[in-house]
Amino acid sequence: RLVNGTTCSGRVEIRHGDTWGRLCRSHWNLQAAGVLCRQLNCGYAKSIQTGDRFVDGNGPVWRDAFHCEGTESCLWDCTQVTLGNPTCSAREAATVVCSGNPGLAESLRLSDGESRCDGRVEISLHGMWGRVLDDDWNIKDAHVVCRQLQCGIAKKAYYLPRSERGIGLVGLRSVQCYGNETQLVLCKTSHSQAPPTGVAEDVGVICSGELQCKRNKMLSRSRQIRLLNGTKRCAGRVEIYHDGIWGTICDDNWDLSDANVVCKQLGCGYAIKAFVSAHYGEGSGQIWLDDVNCTGTESGLWACPSRAWGQHNCQHKEDAGVLCS
């Protein structure tokens, strides 16, 4: 939450249990502030240099710090680090001034779908709604649309059947996104109104749904890890709890360094073996992580480099497992 300011500016506080506390300004940056502004539906972060505005009074100071890339939807999707003592004083607390209501989401919409989070992609440029046409529309492009609309992650990128294609103004053509952009217009695009060569078609997306960022969710409970199907507590298929769902990890690049982080995190000593190819049986449903590449020193598996949550090219026959000491 933001206190001592307006709806979209103030001192940053997070809740542990029933107690709200501040964060240290020295470990607060614009990337984390930007994620928080987006999470609170307050646009983007304009400034974190606010002097002594917002910071009067006393109160607990938490030892949490957030390392964000800036594209996350919620603060607890960022890597969370616990700082050593001593923490800063209550007057050295993190603050932010956000831009206010997003506007970003208002320049993009999905039409003719079942909800606001699926349908044909339309963009507003210069006050006019136009179609988005592409001959190479893919999941990376769709992820950017879902992120901009605060609709979770993309489940599907598709072309509209001929009968449902739009007519009229074209807003964007030939969109090429890396997948980590915060809005569609930041991707490489063609704005030209000239007829394209080849056939470009109207595009659509299905997103996972409106983001349920539980503002007061206890951070430490938002992600968990477990081992299943092993013969003892410290062996099994690795599963992670994220966004309210248990899911598996793909075995691409899975090795002892990754397994070590899991064992340490579960209080299971060190890794004796990193198993691949669903050694402990195939999971079902969500595959959360792929191309995990830990050094072995991380405090949790989600602090390791990997593909984005839910992005993978795997099947459950590639579920990763560990045997700990």
TrEMBL record:
InterPro entries: SRCR (IPR001190), SRCR-like_dom_sf (IPR036772). SMART domains: SR (SM00202). Keywords: Disulfide bond, Glycoprotein, Repeat, Signal. One of its GO terms (cellular component) is membrane. This is C163B protein. The keyword 4Fe-4S does not apply. Transmembrane segments: none annotated. Residues 1-99, 108-208, 225-325 form the SRCR domain. Disulfide bonds join C24-C88, C37-C98, C68-C78, C146-C207, C177-C187, C250-C314, C263-C324, C294-C304. Signal peptide: none annotated. Pfam families: SRCR (PF00530).
